[in-house]
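From the methods appendix. Each design record in this collection lists the tokenized structure first, followed by the designed amino acid sequence. Records were kept in a plain field format so they could be parsed without special tools. The example shown here is representative of the layout used throughout.

RECORD:
FOLD TOKENS (74 positions):
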């Protein structure tokens, strides 16, 4: 059974998942080894992170950086 989380915990968890996925694919993106589908997924993750930055507690939960600088789009 899954652990129940507060809305804030879910948002932070999703942020961490997105950042991990973007970090894991960065090297493949840099070397040109990322498929078109994976590039599209990366771009979607970046857009979601940008939207999460609208959350009133975004900065205090680590969403204070320039998303496009930290995770360059394909």
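DESIGN:
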């Amino acid at each position: 059974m899954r652990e129940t989380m507060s809305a804030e915990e879910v948002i932070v968890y999703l942020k961490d998942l997105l950042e991990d996925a973007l970090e894991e694919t960065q090297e493949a993106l840099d070397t040109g080894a990322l498929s078109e589908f994976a590039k599209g997924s990366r771009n979607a993750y970046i857009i979601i992170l940008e939207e999460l930055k609208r959350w009133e507690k975004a900065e205090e939960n680590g969403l204070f950086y320039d998303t496009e600088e930290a995770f360059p789009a394909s």
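APPENDIX NOTE: The longest helix spans residues 7-31.
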